[in-house]
Amino acid sequence: MSHWLFKHLSLSCQKKEKFKKAFTLVELLITVAIVATLAVIGVPQYTSYKDNQNNATATIDIRNTESQIERFRAVNGNLPATLAAANIVPPTDPWGNAYIYVCCPGNRWDKHIKPLNKDYDLLSMGKDGQTDTKIWKSAAADDIIRGNTGAYIGLASQY
Predict the structure, then answer these.
(1) I want to staple 83 with a disulfide (CB 3.0 to 4.6 A). Which of 30, 88, 108, 109 is the partner?
(2) Which candidate, 110, 127, 126, places its Cα nearest to that of 118?
(3) Cα separation, 41 vs 136, whole angstroms
(4) Which DSSP string do the residues of 85-153 spell out, in sequence order?
């Protein structure tokens, strides 16, 4: 009888140990809730950080391209008709689009219906890949623009 009792107690202890090693449904639900809460907080923060980084990269690219255009103007006495004519190959913007260069002033307009630049326009179409010649329109709001004849480079919505 003692052998049977020992064997029964031994099986009972093994079953209890088996259950102790597993997570309960409540513990799993709490873990999922914590991960979901962290995701709700973290994803928008990461997206905002990434957008700011992309905007900063586009601003730097436009500044660098602007300096190459100004070098061309200093050497040749005029603006290049295209970036290719000046042997300028800017990188694609952070969203994979080409930067837009327009030699003629008056192509883009600010909210006061005045030309954005007196010499040339240089911009990235921004995150949505769309633009408008009127920078206050929603399609142009996320554009990274060169404005005020180079005194401003940044988001069109903040110009």
Answers:
(1) 88
(2) 110
(3) 31
(4) GGT--PPPPTTSPPPEEE-STTSSB-TTS-BS-SS-EEEE-TTTT---SBTTSGGGTT-EEEEGGGTEE
Please answer whether residues 119 and 79 qualify as being in contact, where contact means their C-beta atoms are separated by less than 8 angstroms. yes
Using one digit for the tens of pLDDT, what is the confidence trace for 65-121? 999 999 999 999 999 999 999 999 888 999 999 999 998 776 788 888 888 899 999
Q: How confident is the model at residue 25 (pLDDT cuts 50, 70, 90)?
A: confident
Mean pLDDT, rounded, for 37-60: 88
The CB-side HSE value for 62 (13 A sphere, CA atoms) comes to 30
Looking at the structure of the chain, the number of domains it has is 1
Q: Is 154 helix (H, G, I), strand (E, B) or coil?
A: strand
CATH number for the domain including 80? Answer: 3.30.700.10
Q: What type of residue sits at position 83?
A: L
User: Residue 22: which domain range?
Assistant: 2-158
How crowded is the C-beta side of 116, counted as CA atoms within 13 Å?
28
Give residue 114's pLDDT: 87
Q: Give this prediction's pTM.
A: 0.73
- Please choose, from the candidates 151, 155, 113, the residue with its C-alpha nearest in 3D space to the C-alpha of residue 134: 113
Distance CA 123, CA 99 (A): 6
